[in-house]
């Protein structure tokens, strides 16, 4: 009996007879052993990466950090990314996290992120009348029961906010929330998107990892830079750091990753990927701990990098324990 050890896990095997009753070849059995050992080693590497990413996300941040989440078109997973980041920040930070959904066309905030949240116009009206002076009052006016989250969800029946109204709503969230995630309408031509981008500390662009998705992502990033050039209240450096989240939906993964690296290099952005195309829709409310381990790890990688960029720090530290691209 031989014992193979990987981290804190110990694996016993009685030669090849314990792997299959009638193995076709010795090489096939070696492959099975190697695959099993590889999975064990990968599992054992998760805790250290989880700890490092969580520590990055728990670093202090000045109240009012705004992270804009953009996408060239619907169906790329922008709402999923926004929701996963909100769940991750709520789980690991002790301050108030804001999530503002301005996407009237396809509001996809996941169940579990906010309890029957108000629409942008309803929230703006309540905050304008109530004029909250502290976070508990802010949460009460928004009608949220969570102590660590303030959520506004767009409604398809509601007329979109104007640029000025959007600016007012963002200012209200910035005064009370340590970090605000703002999901913008698809594309870069909406005046609400221009308002958000002009005031964001970091921009997350979610794209499909296809040839067309890369082209659309490049055009959207160019649009972001154009908006920043026209914004009145630019920060000292004049540009927000951009992060690209590639949603892998293509079978030609190698070509997609090469295109993603080229897009990141051309645009001067950081690049991470969603390695799995998951659906989280359903009646049940989600919690961060209930997500699969790989899903949580992806959320932590994206969240740590986005928050590092929003702080104005070097993004390399946030990814020092994980791969930047898959």
Q: What key phrases describe this protein's structure?
A:
43% helix; 326 residues; disordered C terminus; 9 helices; disordered N terminus; alpha/beta; two-stranded antiparallel ribbon; globular; 7-stranded parallel sheet
Give the SSE string: EEHEHEHHEHEHEHEHEH
By DSSP (H or I, 4+ residues per run), the number of helices equals 9
Strand content: 5-15%
Strand order of the largest sheet: 5-4-6-3-7-8-9
Mean pLDDT: 76
The secondary-structure class comes to alpha/beta
User: How can the largest sheet be summarized?
Assistant: 7 strands, parallel
Q: Estimate the global geometry from the Cα principal axes.
A: globular
Count of extended strands: 9
What gyration radius follows from the Cα positions, in whole Å? 22 Å
Model regions low in confidence, pLDDT < 50 over at least 5 residues: 1-23, 37-44, 319-326
**Helix coverage percent:** 40-55%
CA distance, first residue to last residue: 37 Å
Describe the fold and architecture.
The protein is globular, with a radius of gyration of 22 Å. It has helices at 26-57, 78-92, 120-130, 135-142, 163-176, 191-197, 211-230, 253-267, 293-311, and strands at 2-6, 9-13, 65-70, 97-101, 149-152, 179-183, 202-208, 242-247, 270-274. The chain starts with a strand and ends in a 15-residue tail after the last helix. The strands form two sheets. Strands 5-4-6-3-7-8-9 form a seven-stranded parallel sheet, with helices on both faces. The chain has a two-stranded antiparallel ribbon with strand order 1-2. The protein has 326 residues and is an alpha/beta fold. α3 (120-130) packs across α4.
């Amino acid at each position: 009996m031989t014992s193979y050890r990987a981290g804190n896990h110990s694996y016993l095997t009685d030669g090849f007879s314990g792997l299959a009753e009638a193995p076709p070849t010795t090489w096939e059995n070696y492959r099975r052993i190697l695959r099993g050992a590889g999975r064990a080693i990968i599992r054992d590497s998760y805790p250290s990466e989880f700890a490092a990413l969580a520590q990055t996300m728990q670093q202090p941040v000045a109240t009012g950090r705004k992270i804009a989440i953009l996408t060239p078109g619907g169906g790329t997973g922008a709402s999923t990314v926004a929701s996963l980041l909100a769940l991750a920040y709520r789980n690991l930070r002790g301050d108030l996290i804001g999530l503002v959904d301005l996407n009237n066309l396809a509001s996809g905030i996941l169940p579990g992120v906010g309890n029957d949240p108000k629409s942008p116009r309803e929230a703006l009206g309540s905050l304008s009348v109530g004029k909250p002076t502290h976070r508990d009052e802010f949460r009460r006016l928004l009608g949220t029961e969570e102590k660590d989250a303030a959520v506004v969800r767009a409604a398809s029946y509601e007329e979109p906010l104007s640029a000025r109204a959007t600016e007012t709503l963002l200012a209200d969230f910035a005064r009370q929330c340590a970090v605000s995630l703002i999901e913008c309408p698809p594309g870069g031509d909406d005046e609400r998107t221009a308002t958000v981008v002009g005031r964001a500390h970091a921009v997350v662009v979610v794209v499909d990892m296809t040839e067309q998705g890369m082209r659309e992502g490049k055009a959207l990033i160019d649009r972001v830079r154009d908006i920043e050039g026209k914004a009145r209240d630019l920060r000292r450096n004049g540009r927000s750091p951009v992060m690209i989240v590639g949603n892998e939906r293509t079978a030609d993964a190698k070509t997609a990753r090469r295109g993603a690296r080229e897009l990141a290099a051309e645009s001067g952005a950081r690049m991470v990927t969603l390695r799995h195309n998951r659906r989280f829709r359903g009646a049940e409310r989600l919690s961060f701990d209930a997500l699969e381990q790989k899903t949580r790890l992806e959320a932590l990688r994206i969240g740590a990098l986005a928050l590092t960029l929003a702080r104005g720090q070097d993004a390399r530290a946030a990814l020092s324990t994980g791969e930047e691209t898959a």
